[in-house]
């Protein structure tokens, strides 16, 4: 009987302490507002970086695809130079850590600027563009080459064929990979703390410094990230199913 009494007391003590930590981390002093502001910064950087990354990715993918699909014997010096520049960009971005790129962008290239959000968006957008370009290029190359020939035979130019025939088919192929890139981008934004931007992680660290209790703030943001990832996974799953249904 004494054993069970001790066990129950330990159980009650554990949950009482947990509730106290939760209260200190989120309720006292309306500290939940700090997490809300941090979440807003995280989502802001993620969304705008994704838009920039997709824009760069599409542009680079089209250049590299056009270069790879050139007819044998036909050369285009401008396209060749652009393709080399794109390959160098992809190699450098994919070959260096994101944190190093962020530090270079903030402390070297934009050393005189204090627009942390703008620098973070630019750094993540440029980084994401390198990966998105390869995803899109792979999707375009996966579309049967006969589709391009069919479009050209109907009188469409290269740009019109890409826009109306090739890219819509490629989207269905690349959607899962783009979803993974968005999820990765969302989680990687946590490193913006290195330049002092007050995102979710920075706010959790600030709360930890006040309460001297790291467990609840860090577990709290881990749960927030998990919920966001699960939501994005669900949304992309629905979009994929809808696209598959439209094919029937």
Can you characterise this structure?
The chain has 9 helices and no strands. Helix content is 83%, strand content 0%. The radius of gyration is 24 Å and the shape is elongated. With 248 residues, it is mainly alpha-helical. The chain has one domain (31-247): Orthogonal Bundle (MetI-like fold), CATH 1.10.3720.10. It has helices at 2-27, 32-68, 77-95, 98-109, 116-142, 145-153, 158-188, 200-211, 215-247.
In short:
This protein has 9 helices and no strands.
Record the SSE blueprint.
Layout: H1 2-27, H2 32-68, H3 77-95, H4 98-109, H5 116-142, H6 145-153, H7 158-188, H8 200-211, H9 215-247
What would the keywords be for this entry?
248 residues, mainly alpha, MetI-like fold, 9 helices, 83% helix, elongated
| Rg estimate, integer Å | 24 Å
| Distance N to C terminus | 66 Å
Identify the overall geometry. Answer: elongated
pLDDT averaged over residues: 86
> In what range is the share of β-strand residues?
under 5%
| Helix/strand class | mainly alpha
What is the CATH superfamily label?
MetI-like
Number of strands: 0
Largest sheet: none
Which stretches of 5+ consecutive residues score pLDDT under 50?
A: none
